[in-house]
Amino acid sequence: MALLPGPATYLAFCAAAVALILTPGPDTMYVLARGIQSRDAGVRSAFGIATGVLLHTAAATLGLAALLRAAPAAYRVVKYAGAVYLASLGVQAIRNDEFGDAADADGPTADATGSFRRGVLVNVLNPKVALFFLAFLPGFAGSAPGATSRMLVLGATYATLTAAYLGIVAVASGRVGSLLTASTTTSRLSWVGGGAMITLGLALAVE
């Protein structure tokens, strides 16, 4: 019983995964916004999103994601919950000036788990990701014995690639954020970052 598909299939999966991960979406934009706040906040958000990928993998493996496809009402509930959550994060960022001088990135009072937890929720509360994994993983895992184990390994691969790419996005945007903070644009960062999250929430709600 093989834990991995054949080499050609696995490489094809990795290529498809990289192409999909590089496509801009809510996860990338959220990490970008958090990275502007601070490098550490962005990196923690990236790992939170990768953890959300693992949860979606488990849901697809257990068949829970199929419930979203079979129950339109459940799909809408999750979708709107995700939209409200993203928008609330944006409003909170603007009200608390999270992207200005008060950003919590590296100080001793930094919230070490907040950005990670938010990243998990941003990913988990996107039902399109759940349906994507339900359709994407089985095609590469096949139906031979051991398909469940292969789905888990493939999902872990996708999560690792996600963490690597979004980590790079976080570091790069963190450098941009540092430059902006050092300039006269500091007071506008909270509006830009918060506005981006509110826009993401609205986009998720109307999709």
UniProtKB/TrEMBL annotation:
InterPro entries with a match to the protein in the record: LeuE-type (IPR001123)
Keyword field: Cell membrane, Membrane, Transmembrane, Transmembrane helix
Protein topology in the membrane: Multi-pass membrane protein
Subcellular location: Cell membrane
Signal sequence coordinates: none
Cellular compartments per GO CC: plasma membrane
Pfam families: LysE (PF01810)
Transmembrane regions listed in the UniProt entry: 43-68, 120-140, 152-177, 189-206
Molecular-function GO terms, alphabetical: amino acid transmembrane transporter activity
Name the UniProt record assigns to this protein: Threonine/homoserine/homoserine lactone efflux protein
Species of origin: Halobellus clavatus
